[in-house]
Amino acid sequence: MAGGLDALAAYSEGGVRYINQSGKMVIGEGAANFRPLVQRLFSASESVVARIGPWDKPRIAPPKQGNVRMTFLVSDGMYFGEGPMSVMQRDALAGPVIQQATQLLLSVTKAGVE
User: Fold this and answer.
1) Does residue 25 form part of some domain?
2) Chain-wide mean pLDDT for the chain?
3) 19, exposed or middle or buried, with CB in 10 Å at 0-12, 13-18, 19+?
4) Are 107 and 41 in contact (CB under 8 A)?
5) Measured distance CA(37)–CA(43) in Å, rounded
6) Per-residue DSSP letters for 22-49?
7) Which end of the chain is more exposed for a tag (fewer CB within 10 A), N or C?
8) Helix axes 94-110, 35-51, angle to 10 degrees
9) For residue 1, is it within any domain?
10) At residue 1, does pLDDT exceed 70?
């Protein structure tokens, strides 16, 4: 985003945290209305984690403008993928994750908790 990074985190028990580039935050711990969306996001993410290996190199800089980074914290390490949003949205693996994350984000912001 032009003004900075947005970050959306979803947790297996259904919790959600969103930090907007403006610094505003939404925290939805135990929010039953987010749980189905989180489950769909995790389901879409499983195929990505199954295909990529854990990151074993030093931490990299934040994504450049126009890129999206998906980070998965798994029991055996951190997995991530990054690329231009327009490419990642059409990717067979990343596309469904971005689609589900977008639906979750829309729901979080629509809840008016921001």
Assistant:
1) yes
2) 90
3) middle
4) no
5) 10
6) TS-EEEETT-TTTHHHHHHHHHHHHHHH
7) N
8) 160
9) no
10) no
